[in-house]
Amino acid sequence: MTEIKGLIYGTYPKNDELRIKIGRWERGVIKGQEIEAEISREKKVKTELFRNTGSDYTDPLFNWYDIFRPFTCATDGIAPGPLTRYKETNTFYRLPEVDHVGRMKVNPSEFNEIEENPPLPLFQGNSDPNYFAFFPSPFSFFKMSKVKEEATVDQFTKGMISIYSDIMKSYGFKNALLFESLPYQGEDLSLLLPFIEKFRTILVTEGNLKFADFTPLGKKLHSIAVTPEDRNMEIATKHSSIPGIRAIDSHNTKIEEPGAVKQNALDEAEKTGADSIYVTFNDYLDFLPDSIAAKKLEMIKEVIN
Questions:
Q1: Widest CA span of the chain, in angstroms?
Q2: Structural domains for the chain
Q3: Cα separation of 5 and 30, whole Å?
């Protein structure tokens, strides 16, 4: 019988109370230590919500203004540029302006105040085996940045993978999730090897995988989560232990019918002979109101139980 697992990842919508408090911090009414404590409390609440669904999950990232911002603000050689539309959505991110990739200027696992972003730590420490540290894939990070002409994707990826590895070690984490915002365009996936050889890795991909060559990795990832396009599940099943299907819409307030989502996952697993499959979202959930995101979590709980 096919096992269906849930996966919750990326920035999660803040409730109104936390938004108000972050607004007060932005105006200087609340100090850094105070807002960090408020964010930490709310992270614990939402982490328990994620855990209760029975899913694997990442940090809700309430102190990340966007998925690149902490690294943009805290890494030597990268600086925040103008507000830029995030893909085709009504949300924005600070365009990273990359001269080179140095080291992080601060210890990301400790309290630190950085410009243009709420205070660190980057993640809430978590020893739960179902917890995965969230990172933007270096490939999407590079393509969604303004990069100095002589900087290459290889140099950038190696630099970010080194930073990500150091962060994982500083927390003692064993599980990580790399999130692609954009489709592959022939990138050399072997650049990820120094990371995936050390850590159990989920790769959340975008678009058609026909332009991705996983053969140089030489080993299966823990999971490759894919959009429901032709042959994507076949490729994910071949190159990961648990393929994933991005079957739940993060951009639509309509709540999917759990039975239909479950059957879709079972059908996809049957086509490729997968014994287990992740069901997850087509993007992180921060595009939705907090109340709708909570209903989507209830729905995924029904799918996997």
A1: 56
A2: 3-304 (3.20.20.210)
A3: 40
